[in-house]
Specification:
By secondary structure, this protein is mainly alpha-helical. It has a single domain, classed as Leucine-rich Repeat Variant, CATH 1.25.10. Helices cover 55% and strands 0% of the residues. The chain is built from 12 helices and no strands.
Length: 241
C-alpha cells in the first residue's frame, strides 16, 4: 500500500513505516526513518540559518499531503522529539527560518496528536511573530511569512479547543483583530487573519469569555474593505516549499 492516500487516524499515537522487502534506493532514500533522525539532528545542532531553513523546509515537504510516508514522518517527528526543535525555530532571528518552521508545523499539525502538542507549546511563539501588540522591538515580517504563520495557527486551532484558548491567552485575538481592521495590511493577511478569527468564534465555549473581555461578533468577521489592494491578493498558498 506504499503511496496510497489514507485519512489521518485521530486515535493513532504511532504510525510505523511500511516494511521493506528490498533496500531503499534512488528517491526512496529521501523519506526513510533514518533521514528523519538526520533532519532532527541538524535542527537541534546546527547554528547556520541556511541549514535550519533547509531542514525545516524538507520536513515541510515530506509531511505535505496524505500519502503514506507523510503520515509516517509526522508520527516519527513526534516520537523522535522533533516538534519542540521546530517550534524553537519560531524565535530565530532569520525570517526565512521562521517561515520554514511555520510551514513545517502546519503540515505536522495534520496529525491529531501533533496538533495537540503544537497547540500547547508553539502557539505563543507563533503569536509573537504576528504584527502589532506591545512587543519591543516589533517584528517586521513579510506578507508571505505573516500569511504562513496565520495559516499555521488556523490549522492548529481547528478541532482543537485548547489551542484556541491558548491563542486567546497569548494576546492572539488582539493581534488578529488589528490585522483585520487596521487598514494597513494586505488582502491576503486580512483574509488569513479573518479565517482564524472565524475559527475562534466557531467555538461556542469561547464566546461568553470573549464578550466579557469586550469583543463583539463583528470583531470576528472579515473586513476586506480596509485591506490594501496593492499588497497582493493572491489567495494561493503552497503546502510545500
Amino acid at each position: 500500500s506504499e503511496g496510497k492516500k489514507l485519512p489521518e487516524e485521530p486515535g493513532a499515537d504511532a504510525v510505523d513505516f511500511p516494511k521493506r522487502t528490498t533496500p531503499a534506493k534512488g528517491y526512496e532514500l529521501l523519506f526513510q526513518p533514518e533521514v528523519v533522525r538526520i533532519y532532527i539532528s541538524l535542527l537541534k545542532e546546527s547554528k547556520t540559518p541556511a541549514i535550519l531553513e533547509a531542514s525545516a523546509g524538507a520536513i515541510q515537504n515530506l509531511c505535505a499531503g496524505s500519502w503514506t510516508y507523510g503520515r509516517c514522518i509526522r508520527s516519527a517527528l513526534r516520537q523522535e522529539k522533533g516538534l519542540s526543535a521546530i517550534a524553537d525555530l519560531l524565535s530565530h532571528d532569520s525570517e526565512r527560518v521562521v517561515k520554514a518552521a511555520s510551514g513545517a508545523l502546519r503540515n505536522l499539525a495534520v496529525d491529531t496528536r501533533n496538533k495537540e502538542l503544537i497547540g500547547k507549546h508553539a502557539i505563543p511563539n507563533l503569536v509573537k511573530n504576528l504584527p502589532g501588540g506591545q512587543q519591543t522591538p516589533a517584528k517586521n515580517l513579510s506578507e508571505d511569512t505573516v500569511v504562513s504563520i496565520l495559516n499555521t495557527i488556523n490549522e492548529v486551532i481547528v478541532d482543537n479547543l485548547e489551542a484556541a484558548k491558548k491563542l486567546r491567552e497569548t494576546q492572539g485575538i488582539e493581534k488578529l483583530v488589528l490585522i483585520n481592521k487596521s487598514g494597513n495590511r494586505s488582502e491576503r493577511e486580512v483574509r488569513a487573519a479573518a479565517l482564524v478569527l472565524q475559527t475562534v468564534w466557531g467555538y461556542k465555549e469561547l464566546r461568553k469569555p470573549l464578550e466579557k473581555e469586550g469583543w463583539k461578533k463583528s470583531d470576528f468577521q472579515v473586513n476586506l474593505s480596509n485591506a490594501s489592494r496593492t499588497q497582493g491578493g493572491n489567495s494561493f498558498d503552497d503546502s510545500t516549499l
